[in-house]
Structure formats: C-alpha cells, structure tokens
Amino acid sequence: MKTIIEPFRIKVVEPIRMTTPAEREEILLNAGYNLFMIKSDDILIDLLTDSGTAAMSDSQWACIMRGDESYAGARSFYKFFDVVQAITGFKHIIPTHQGRAAERILFEIIAKPGTYFPSNTHFDTTRANIEYHNANAVDLVIPEGKDPKVIHPFKGNIDLTRLEKFIDDTDPDNIPICMLTVTNNSGGGQPVSLENIRATKRLLERYKIPLFLDACRFAENAYFIKKREPGYGDKLCIDIAREMFSYADGCTMSAKKDALVNIGGFLALNDDTLATKARNVLIVTEGFPTYGGLAGRDLEAIAQGLQEVLDEDYLHYRIRTVEYMAEQLDRLGVPYLKPAGGHAIYLDAKEFVPHIPPEQFPGQAIACALYLDGGIRSCEIGSIMFGKTDPLTKSHIGPDMELVRLAFPRRVYTQSHFDYTVEVIGKVFEKRDQLRGFRFTYEAPMLRHFTAQFEKV
Ligand SMILES: *Cc1c(COP(=O)(O)O)cnc(C)c1O
User: Which CATH number among 3.10.330.10, 3.40.50.720, 3.30.70.890, 3.90.1150.10 corresponds to the domain 21-50+313-456?
Assistant: First the structure.
C-alpha cells in the first residue's frame, strides 16, 4: 500500500518558534504546571485540542470575503441553513458562537432541577451545562468503552440494557432528552454504530423521550461506520451521516470540530415549540436568529467546511493520520486507548505511569513531561478534568480512565510533525519511572482543569 498523503498543498505557512528544554522548564513553572496557561508562542506542536484549530481551505477563505453581514436575513445565513439542513434534515437551525452556547440554550429550556440526561458519555461542557441547572448528567457507555485495552469497533455505543433499566428506575417524565456524543470525545474519540443509534431511538420512542446527537464529529463517526459496520462499506459518508441524523430529534454542534472552522456552532431540532423558546433565549444572549453569535462570513465558511469534511479522501487521510501514529506507538510499546479514535490518540496514563496514583494526576505528569521534552502540548483527561473530592471522607473519586489526549488539529500538521511527536513520546516513555505526580495549589469550583495551578509532589 502506498503512503496516504495529505490531500492538500500548503499555500500559507505559520512559523513555529523553537524553544529549548531550559526555557520550557521555566515556562512550565510560571504556568503553575497547567498547559492551558502557556502562551501558544511557547509551544512547538500544539495537540491540546482539535477544537477551532483547523486550517481553512482556499475556498473557505474566499467565503470569508463573500460573507453577507446584514443584521437580518443575510444571504450567508440561508447558505448555512441549506447546507446544515441537507446534512441533518432538521427543521430549525439556530446558529450559535460555539458548541457550548448551543448546549446552554438547549439546557436552559429543558433542564429542570432534578431531571436526568442519559448519554453514552457527556463532554465536559455538556455536563457542566446540565449540572448548572441542578440536573443530572448520566454516562451509560458500554463496558468495553471504559477499558482502554479492549478492542471493539464501536466503543462509543450506549449500553442499551442499562439505558432501559435507567429509564424504568428514573421515570421517563424526568428525562427530557437522551444524548449520544458522536464520536465519543471523553471516551477516546470512539464511534457509535448506526445499529446503536437506531436501537437507542427505538427504545426511547417507547417512552416518548427525544434523542439528541452531540454531533461535533459526525463526519469522523460516519467514516468509522463506513469502515467498520457491515453493510456500509459502499455507502458515501454523506449518506451515512444523513442516516445518523434521521434517528435524532435534534443536535448540538461545535463547528470548531467537523465544520473545519475556527469558531461557530449550532443547535438544530424539529420541535416547533422548543425552537421558539430556543430562539427567544438566543436573541437575549447570542443575537438575531439569522446570525446567532456569528458574523455572516463565519456562517459562509461553516457551510463550505461542512461540505469539505464529508469528502471521502479527506476523511480517509484524517483517520489514517491517527492510525499511523497508533502504529508507531505500538512499535514502542507505549500504552494508549485502543483502537485509536477519530481525532486523537489517548495515552493510557494508568499503564504508562502505574507508580503515580490517580489523586496525584498521572496524566498531568505525562503531559508536563511531553512539553518539557519536546514542546508538545497535550491535555489531561482524567482525574483533573473529571475527578471529585468526596465531601464527607475527603478521599479522591477518579473517573474510570486516566488519559492524556493528543488531539490532532485538522489539516494543520504533516507526517514529520507526527514522527517528531512519536519520538518525544518514546523518550518520555523510556524515563517514565522518573516522572512524579502533582497536587493542586489552586482549584476553581467548575471546569477546574482550565485554571488550576499545581506543584510537584
Ligand atoms: C468541543 C465539544 C463541545 C463544546 O463545543 P465548544 O465549541 O468548545 O463550545 C461539546 N461536545 C463535544 C463532544 C465537544 O467535543
């Protein structure tokens, strides 16, 4: 098989500022060992997130010039509307400035105190928006989805047996909607099968509970279905995506992922009453319904990006990039969440540094070492992001997995950047016994990973 090349040529470049290990040591100390606190100029390869970090195409940049900035009824809105509707089929499409704004509006109108929101796994902003209303975010991913070593084609699937039992035990009237995150970001970028989406819908229908997709990576999910689900190998990703959305009553979307833009999102849904309520909140907090929280040019670029992301060659290259890196890590024996997901490699910190207990943040120890050694920025997805302190016993309650996410910005880095990243991971892995854990010196009450400060244990 020939090398799968980046299916684009580079027309504009952005220089990377080189730094030395000594400089990085000081930078890391000044940042309180929180990689979110480091200036991007001090990063060599930024794999903190794939969110809003895509390189736009020449066509998208042309869209930026073509944007219609009319306050109401802008041409760019109708272009955006038509493209989103052609893919999702939803009746109402409400633009927002990013994914969490769509979440905030949705949960403001449906989350009453004491209600429950089951999902395969809620993303951190989704969970925060639910808990903000004193409602409960419930993760019901299949057991395979919680074990980094188990190979399963659709580790993002929701556990239908547990979902049914949960609905019966909870009372369906207390469950405004059920969600499926495609792909499952917090669970390792793992896909959800069409069979699972269809069966979830069928189950929910019996209880009249609507299904919403957190659709941030719908195109990557569609590609996995094409590659892994029997009967879909010859289908186009656009048709698979349409079928995914056909089982849902609505979706939230961060355009910063699979719409290949740097800002934007939307809430889409079929229910007229909910849509009216959502637009009323939108007008107060985001903007008029034909621009939401965005400029006309942004809507235009999203419309173009949503078409480019469904290009079969693009998706082939995209998923192959992650797979390629996984193969290199296999060669070195580095533990990571298997199989590799759609937008990132998730190092398995529990296996990588078994001598660091969860309450000392093993993922953070690795993330800091990758920065120190190679200037690479990654993101801890473990006890810092999802851990809690038991209010009674004061003991640490950690999530099932301790992960370090290396997320791949779309169309930004080349194969040599990934080869370099593997070399750095290999070097850190060789000296893993020397890594030490961390403790908080500052911790915010919500979404603490963004602003926390640490010291070495
Ligand atoms: C990024 C993300 C969000 C939130 O979107 P923002 O644009 O960052 O506000 C929600 N859900 C998932 C699965 C995400 O990856």
Answer: 3.90.1150.10
CA-nearest of 8, 24, 50, 13 to 344 is: 50
Angle at 312 between CA 307 and CA 317, to 5 degrees: 110
Ligand 1 center to 100 CA (angstroms)? 6
What spacing in Å lies between the alpha carbon of 49 and ligand 1's midpoint?
10
Instruction: Tell me which residue of 239, 248, 234 sits closest to 219, measured CA to CA.
Output: 239
CB 457 within 8 A of CB 438: yes
Q: Does ligand 1 lie within 6 Å of residue 126's CB atom?
A: yes
- Strands 136-139 and 178-181 turn out to be unpaired
pTM over 0.90: yes
Residue 31 and residue 38: Cα distance in Å, rounded? 6
Quote helix, strand, coil % in the chain, to nearest 5.
45, 15, 40
Q: Is the CB of 265 under 6 A from ligand 1?
A: yes
Q: What angle do CA 210, 212, 214 make, to 5 degrees?
A: 165
Render pLDDT for 54-111 as a digit per residue (tens, 0 to 9).
999 999 999 999 999 999 999 999 999 999 999 999 999 999 999 999 999 999 999 9
